[in-house]
Amino acid sequence: SGSCQKSVYAQVHEIISQLISANNFYIALKSPKVEANGAFEFVYMSDEYLGVRTSIRQIESNREPGFTELVMKLGKPLLLSKAELDRYHQEGLARKPDDTTYSWLGVPLIVEGEVRGVMTVQSYQPNPVDYQQKDVDLLTFVAQHVANAVVRHEMAEFMRDSNSRLEEQVAHRTAALRAQINETREVQKKLKITASHDALTGLINRGEFIYRLNQLITKADTEVSSKFAVLFVDIDRFKMVNDSLGHAAGDTLLCTIADELKGLLRTQDTVARLGGDEFVILIEEIEVEQHAYDIAQRINDTLKKPFIIENQPVFIGGSVGVLFSDPAYGDADEMLCDADAAMYHAKRSGPGRYAVFDKSMQSDKQDAISLEADLRYGIENGEIHTYWHPILDLKTGQIIGFESLARWHSPARGIVPPLDFIPFAESAGLVKGIDLLVLEESCRNLKQIQTLYPEQKLYVSSNLYCEHFFQDDLVDTIANILDKTGLAPECLCIELTERALLEYTEQVLLNMEKLKKLGVSLALDDFGIGYSSLSYLYQFPIDTLKIDKSFVENLNQKASNNTILKAVIDLAHNLDMTAVCEGIETQADMNQVLAMGCNFGQGYLFAKPLPFEDIKQQYQDNRSFCSINCHCRNETQLELCV
């Protein structure tokens, strides 16, 4: 705050007064609002005649320039006696000084080569106090640190939730300066320490963590010491919070996570923020490795719990890489690299996991880096193809619609199975782009069929990753795609997963209601494998319940499985939803789900997902989607009969 900053200036004045005559001490800063016009502000002044003033005094740019403006213009210190003050005035360099001023010393406050202000002392004594070059050197040294403090204060004005931490840093630096002003090396040491903390969370930053870890590695090389561990923590779905609730909410979440992590550790352990949503923990003096595993598990358990941000629950999660000390490690960077590889392995294994490093993980990480590069290239260069999977009326055998699916045809990797790249695309932040690409292509393709055969009543069902529903521009994006492709909204169904309901926000419900108003229908995909409460089905405007294939796969294994599937189908009907069973692979499967009252389904009994061009060709050959051979299992055998 401004009052805290003025207190800092007063403390600096107090310290300087112990070293030189500084009864008359001033700090002037360029005004940020009118800097181009040369105006400035006295943010602190202590004068024998005027007393101590901490209120800002604005100096307009149109007045006759004084010696403070001259230092700002020259960008270097000025040490002037009474005679020199008068001479400068006579030469027109500055306005006439006060008759009572006998000696004047001003030094610029310089930040990255730019003069930001001036720090001044002057003497009114009849027997003048002549300032000397050593006084110039001292004031210049102090001015460097005051300038840095000014810059940090200005930066903090633009960072919500960080004012108190910045004030603490400034106060710490001022205390260090007061205690050790005569020992430059000690002052610099203190400044380095305070500069080693993350401004947002108050945790130590990457540089300080590496310094401490290197010290521990060196100690382990020269002394008999206990084992230690490095835990690399990555926050899942942090970008979702930033995108849906804003950066201020994201900052609040990071601070809350930092506090939670500190609360899980002993006093001798260290937690740092590396940057973004990555944290790293140093656990010292480990007697058994299980201690590190327990902490990793507690971290994941903590991150699974809802965080209350802006009065609503936010669900995130985390992945933790565990690395133990080893004499083979020469420096901190090597250990961080391997801990990161372990974290990445944990992330690929699924949400809320931790993994312990082994050497094979480095090659896994390199493979992942290569996969990401190939996938990014593939998205940009048309390697993502749209496949269509028929959805049938099980009573008539008629195709009523298609689910559009993404398939990656990589020149280097061949046809990459969805399970090998979709989860990776989610963690790499690429899946949203894939979703929109497939959505637009699906709408365009169905419009082609409708244009050729307008009598066919078909719809396309396209999957959207749950994070789309946290965006306030989702409905506009879909409306633009429909407008661009010419497809009617009622011919489009958007499939979303239970996670979008579990991580409920007002924006999710608002987007669903807007889509319904637009005319687009909504389907809940893979129902039954998530964690959402059945009560959510009553709250959201869902049209179709797509029952996960695991329910059909487990039919007849035990009686309760059949009972559960029948109950889910009945639940959908009672909520006025259409039930669609996924994973129908045999005639017996189809007969059973029909007997349970489910009239719609899809599965390999009918066809595997097919490229749109194959669908289009068979459509052109048969001129209709009236029925199919329900015994075909080869994707080339899908029959579209007249």
TrEMBL record:
SUPFAM superfamilies per UniProt: EAL domain-like (SSF141868), GAF domain-like (SSF55781), Nucleotide cyclase (SSF55073)
Limits of the EAL domain: 368-623
Organism ancestry: Bacteria, Pseudomonadati, Pseudomonadota, Gammaproteobacteria, Vibrionales
Organism of derivation: Vibrio paucivorans
Superkingdom assignment: Bacteria
One Pfam family matching this protein: GGDEF
Name recorded for this polypeptide: EAL domain-containing protein
Domain GGDEF positions: 226-359
